[in-house]
Amino acid sequence: MVVARSRRAGGREKASRTQYAILGLLAAGPRSGYDIKKEVAERISHFWNESLGHLYPVLSRLLDAGLVTRTYEPGNGRPMRHVYAITEEGRQQLDSWLREPVVATPPRLEILLKTYFGAHIEPTVLTAHIESYRAERARQLAILESVHAMLSEPATSEDARYLRMTVRAGVLAARAALAWCDEALAEQRALITDQASG
Amino acid sequence: MVVARSRRAGGREKASRTQYAILGLLAAGPRSGYDIKKEVAERISHFWNESLGHLYPVLSRLLDAGLVTRTYEPGNGRPMRHVYAITEEGRQQLDSWLREPVVATPPRLEILLKTYFGAHIEPTVLTAHIESYRAERARQLAILESVHAMLSEPATSEDARYLRMTVRAGVLAARAALAWCDEALAEQRALITDQASG
DNA sequence: CAGGGCATGTAAAACGTTACATGATTGC
DNA sequence: GCAATCATGTAACGTTTTACATGCCCTG
Questions:
Q1: What is the pTM of this model?
Q2: To the nearest whole angstrom, how far is the Cα of A181 from the nearest Cα of chain B?
Q3: Which residue is closest to D13 in terms of CA–C1' distance?
């Protein structure tokens, strides 16, 4: 039983990815909503993200559907921790999703949209956007490279295998982005000097 | 005046990117909703997309807000073409959006999510996903490379400059994706033979 | 003593996709 | 004759974000 999906008769059914992300994380051990948010932010934010405001309602739905169970832990003054654990049925759901073909979702890269409309602004404005995009990606690359190096040390447990693979994807994507920025910035510079001398 | 944005008092205001995409395309000349959809699908689908069901209502909103005008063209039996043109106010909106810093939207790459959960399925299943992802990206790369080659010919008009830059971004990103797939597939092969012999 | 982290959750709203509805023309 | 393209638009639905609401504890 899939929880959140279209009930449209005859339509192709598409379930929320958030629920599978949750199920996948819980498959590695019980966690609270807050824990899940932290794990997403700290480990996989280079290719996935979730907001707390969405996580909580989806966790409740998963509970109602019997795909997870909930227990409580004292909060020491803070609100009680709600700790969720995956059930056998949840594991089956996860397993069948994991076997389904990957659904490619079309990207929306605002930096490229502004680039495409480059003819409608001064070249220097676009240049500034590309520079700040480059800086952001360079920052991200540095982090990903250091994480990848750590995960590649021989002492690292085999558990890190798949995380390392995703980090590697981030490294290669970030390098490609930087390479594009450098090319684009060079082209912009050429255009700007052309205009000045022409 | 920004059209589609939060009316929440005191909140940071964020407008729909669809409206700016439309404004940007109309800045190059009048088009119908159908034309816009085609242009998006044929030229910039490697980094942006729009659905007709969303385009039509946003065009109406833009019309109400005075950022575009509408004229009609006979449809020759088909429904009448509604042709939209950007107004001076629309150009100002576009210009100010073009100057705003680029908002980075966090990605959601399902292939990497499934990779991250690789420990919960047989390695061969993940391998198959990566292979089909690779095939898809290879197909895309071939198209982008041929488009890029065409746009790089000396005879090509200077109008193609920014389109060519975005295509180049697609080429580099696709190559990086292929490189990752090859590495990941090699790692998976090693794991599978390890398991068989161990 | 202020700010950030811990920790839960709700409410409002926007965003966007897909299916539905309709129907003629063009190409295979 | 059948499918695709042209061409508009609405309706239903689900997804997700952001702001709001609350309040203690720890660190600088």
A1: 0.92
A2: 9
A3: A6
